[in-house]
From TrEMBL:
<feature type="domain" description="HTH cro/C1-type">
    <location>
        <begin position="18"/>
        <end position="73"/>
    </location>
</feature>
<dbReference type="InterPro" id="IPR001387">
    <property type="entry name" value="Cro/C1-type_HTH"/>
</dbReference>
<dbReference type="GO" id="GO:0003677">
    <property type="term" value="F:DNA binding"/>
</dbReference>
<dbReference type="Pfam" id="PF13560">
    <property type="entry name" value="HTH_31"/>
</dbReference>
<dbReference type="InterPro" id="IPR010982">
    <property type="entry name" value="Lambda_DNA-bd_dom_sf"/>
</dbReference>
<protein>
    <submittedName>
        <fullName>Helix-turn-helix domain-containing protein</fullName>
    </submittedName>
</protein>
């Protein structure tokens, strides 16, 4: 039983956590104080709980000196349990990717694996990332048992793709690249499966700032689809091709090739117009239609530095009928991305509205993604915060610097 003055592990004060991390790194209070530009007395008081450590700017300085993310120090703040679970889940995913032995428990059949992967993709599209993170380690373990079955190729690709895309969201691009590469290997040269895997590979490479490689991966998959005689019989082929073209366009924008980015986006737009429909994503997470193309157009403009155009396109899309047909994850992820565009435009109020809108649609997007936390931190630093932003910051565990 936890008595007065004592704390469970989940309730360890931030000062005590700072002391533990400092001690693990072999730093004395004086050495640590010198690194953060404070006095030894200040460090001692924080560690004993005499002084509070709740200013975001100070927390970031302390975290940087300790070599950890600010979220690690904020473990006792509201909703920290979700962050802790996320970090632990990533480690379980890492362990599952590192293992190659058959799982200890009985694995599902190929059909069961496909069904379970489908459930996980549904959770992903709805923005239920905690559920996805709980599911992925077991799904990855199951793929080790079924990897020799030819019929297992499709669900295995789906599992590795979902793993890669989830890890990209969580700011783990190297681990995401590993999962995407596994998806490419599991595709066994099949053009359709390879194209699906290439989407995740391109995303991981873009997250690693390897835009040219990402573009090559996406366009190579498009060329393979174009050479497939049976492509006309694949109902999702237009959406798959368009998604790859948009990934290639975003990749081109990362190294400021505006002409290529524009041409690729227009090719995707022509495909969307030719089929004239708004598709909900299928079991492989492909959302296709004019709305998805326009969202990509906005993000491409932002990456090319044309933030005004990106904001204009964004406003047009969110006011269209197609916006609400997109899955929650897609809409929330886009809103977080466009938050950075508004910050670059010097409009923290619009950035705040975008971020809180994302939180209403899919809270896990804003509360687990590092890029959302970075945007929230930037908004707080402007001092121009709405009540909604203040509430979100409090929920996540950040305070105004």
């Amino acid at each position: 039983m936890t008595g007065p003055g004592r704390h469970s592990r989940a309730e360890v004060p931030i000062g005590r956590r700072m002391a533990e991390l400092r001690a693990r790194r072999g730093m004395s209070q004086q050495v640590f104080a010198d690194r953060i530009g404070r006095s030894k007395s200040w460090v001692d008081k924080v560690e004993r709980g005499v002084r509070t450590l709740d200013r975001l700017s100070v927390i970031e300085t302390v975290a940087a000196a300790l070599g950890v993310a600010p979220a690690v120090l904020l473990a006792d703040k509201p909703h920290r349990e979700a962050v802790t679970d996320t970090e632990a889940a990533v480690e379980r995913i890492r362990a599952a990717l590192a293992r190659h032995d058959p799982p200890d428990t009985e694995s599902p059949t190929v059909r069961q694996l496909d069904d379970q992967a489908g459930y996980a993709w549904t959770a992903y599209r709805n923005g239920h990332h905690a559920q996805v993170l709980r599911t992925l380690p077991d799904l990855l373990a199951a793929t080790r048992h079924t990897q020799h079955a030819e019929t297992a190729a499709d669900p295995i690709v789906r599992v590795y793709r979902l793993t890669a895309q989830t890890l990209v969201k969580l700011g783990k691009p190297h681990l995401a690249w590993l999962a995407a590469d596994r998806a490419m290997t599991a595709a066994t040269g099949d053009p359709h499966r390879t194209a699906l895997a290439a989407i995740s590979l391109a995303q991981a490479l873009r997250a690693l700032h390897r835009g040219r490689l990402a573009q090559t991966a996406a366009l190579t998959a498009v060329h393979q689809l174009d050479r497939t005689p049976s492509r006309a019989f694949l109902p999702d082929e237009p959406g798959l091709t368009a998604t790859l073209l948009l990934e290639a366009a975003l990749a081109a924008a990362t190294y400021r090739d505006a002409t290529t980015a524009h041409d690729l986006t227009e090719r995707a737009a022509h495909l969307a117009a030719a089929h004239d429909s708004q598709h909900q994503p299928d079991g492989d997470g492909i959302a296709f239609g004019p709305t998805a193309v326009e969202l990509a157009r906005a993000l491409t403009a932002a990456r090319l530095g044309d933030h005004h155009h990106a904001a204009i396109v964004h406003r047009q899309v969110v006011n269209s009928d197609g916006w609400h047909l997109l899955p929650a994850e897609h809409r929330a992820a886009h809103l977080i991305d466009i938050t950075h565009t508004y910050l670059d435009l010097g409009d923290p109020q619009a950035a705040g509205r975008s971020l809180t809108a994302a939180d209403r649609i899919a809270p896990a997007e804003t509360r687990t993604r590092p890029t959302a936390r970075t945007a929230l931190t930037a908004i707080l630093r402007t001092g121009q915060t709405s009540a909604d932003i203040t509430r979100l910051a409090t929920a996540i565990g950040l305070t105004r610097p």
